[in-house]
Design a protein that fits this description.
single chain, about 200 residues, alpha/beta, Rossmann fold, 7 strands, about 35% helix, globular
Length: about 200
């Protein structure tokens, strides 16, 4: 697996061993990048359930200026740390300033509860599919508070949740603006409405 585009194109990414994480397939990752490209420029990204960090690192390579990665699996976190270190070296050699760029070994919902208001322009979440519905129902009110106005929240889930996810968000100031299926994978994108 490697970064597909941008200033860090071609950077090889370490991936965790075992079955604790489910990497986003390259075809789906390319589709995610295409869907979210309008929000990368100068964005600060929060990557929840980050795994190896492939999605958040790709966003940085394509124009985001900072990212915070949250992952609770120790094996995945080890790969994430290696990938962030390699990206830092590439950024340094190319004169790219990334701020913030940090990671936390923590549960994603617990980390969300500790975030400051209006801190992120783009939030990406890729929870285990079996947990996606309960995660999003708990997370949406928090996400709405920590997104900047006009910022977006994107979620990868199982396609079986399409109908359910299409009817939530408005009650907390988020509007579902895109929803696309790729085989069994569904990508849903909400935008924070202006206050």
């Amino acid at each position: 697996m490697q970064i597909g585009s941008g200033w860090c194109k071609g950077l090889k990414l370490a991936t965790p061993r075992g079955l604790e994480t489910r990497p986003t397939r390259s075809r789906v990752r390319a589709a995610i990048m295409s869907m979210l490209q309008p929000w990368f420029s100068e964005a600060v990204v929060l990557d929840l359930y980050a795994g190896s960090g492939a999605v958040g690192l790709e966003m940085l390579s394509r124009g985001a200026v900072g990212a915070v990665f949250i992952e609770k699996s120790k094996e995945a976190y080890k790969a994430l740390q290696e990938n962030i270190g390699n990206l830092r070296m590439r950024a340094s050699s190319q004169g790219v300033n990334l701020n913030p760029l940090r990671s936390m070994l923590q549960d994603s919902l617990a980390a969300l509860n500790g975030c400051r208001l209006g801190e992120y322009d783009l939030i990406w979440a890729d929870p285990p599919y079996a947990e996606a519905e309960s995660f999003v129902m708990t997370a949406l009110p928090i996400v709405s508070k920590i997104l900047t106005p006009g910022g977006v929240f994107a979620l990868e889930s199982d396609v079986s949740l399409e109908q359910r996810l299409s009817s939530i968000g408005a009650e907390v100031g988020l509007e579902l603006i895109k929803q696309r299926a790729y085989g069994v994978t569904l990508i849903s994108v909400w935008k924070k409405l202006a206050d």
